[in-house]
Amino acid sequence: MCKFCLKHGANGKWYLNAQNYLKKESEKFEDTREYLEVLWGNLERVYLGKTYGLSINKTLDYRLKMPLLGRVIKAVVHRKLEKEKNPNPLIAESHLGQVIPLEEAKMITTTLADISVKANCPCRFKHRGIKEASCLGFTALAEVLPKLPRYIPENGLEVLDADKIELFLDTMNKKGKVHTIWAGPLPYIAAMCSCEYPQCIGLRTRIDFDVKAVYKGEYIALVEPDKCIGCGKCASRCQFGAMNFAPTLNRPIIDARKCFGCGLCKESCEQQAIKLIDRNEIPITRGMY
Fold first, then answer.
1. Of 11, 100, 253, 274, which is most buried, counting CB atoms within 10 Å of its CB?
2. Are residues 238 and 178 in contact, defined by beta-carbon separation less than 8 angstroms?
3. Of the residues 200, 215, 230, which one is the last residue of a structural domain?
4. What is the pLDDT of residues 70-95, one digit of tens each?
């Protein structure tokens, strides 16, 4: 369990704590709405143009890999990302995500989030010019989105019921999108995104630069050899380089240290030969978020 979960979690997971999903009558609702209006109103400039306050280029990559300087830069960025008291949305403070599997994405949107609306993904629009409604905005963000037309889908903002949410999440899963949950300002949860590497800025900064804008999920994938028929479908679904197909064994091999616990490989297996287990059950991944 990570320190953030210990402080804000429910059943060991911060994103399953109902108190982190603000209702309109919540004491912090207005403050959160104002923060989100500034954050999402300037998202391209603050978070996407300069990712989490850093210019994404080869020079930065080199500096981050330097033993001492790299640790200093990452420590400064992580403090910004994890700031909870008086965060400034214009300088990339207090905006943190985590990878979650499909089952928990459905649980959150059908039982914890009060209101869910579809919104265009800012990452995909910035990097590929594609307006795709692959994000879900929860109550506070749903109040802000009408003021930000570029995030509104062609058919407008629609409050989704449980059936439409499940259909949406299943569709994103079939497209190979990774589900991530996002807070801001911490610990209040504003959105769930279904994106992919390298378009997702959060995943890109984590994978390419080891900046923890996104935590790894609470799980790792595990293959059950007796059930696996060696079809290889699962290996092509992994975006994190954690899964390779071994022809001599006729089954996939998972590097637990690289696994983000998104569950895409699990969902693709018709034989149910892959399961997700708590990452803290295995010594080499314990506490590795």
1. 100
2. no
3. 215
4. 899 889 888 888 999 999 998 878 98
Give the residue among 175, 220, 177, 218 at the shortest CA–CA distance from 200.
177
Confidence of residue 2 (pLDDT cuts 50, 70, 90): low
As a residue count, the chain comes to: 289
Pair 150, 27 in one domain: yes
Residue found by looking up tokens 């009408």 in the block:
146
Considering just the CA atoms, what is the radius of gyration of the chain in Å?
19
Residue type, 239: Q
Distance CA 212, CA 181 (A): 14
Q: How far is CA 101 from CA 81, 222, 265, in A?
A: 22, 14, 10
Token pair listed for 165: 């949410």
Residue at 146: amino acid letter: P
Which residue range is the domain that position 259 belongs to? 219-285
Angle, helix 201-209 to helix 58-65, in steps of 10 degrees: 50
The β-bridge relationship of strands 97-99 and 117-119 is unpaired
| pLDDT the model gives residue 132 | 92
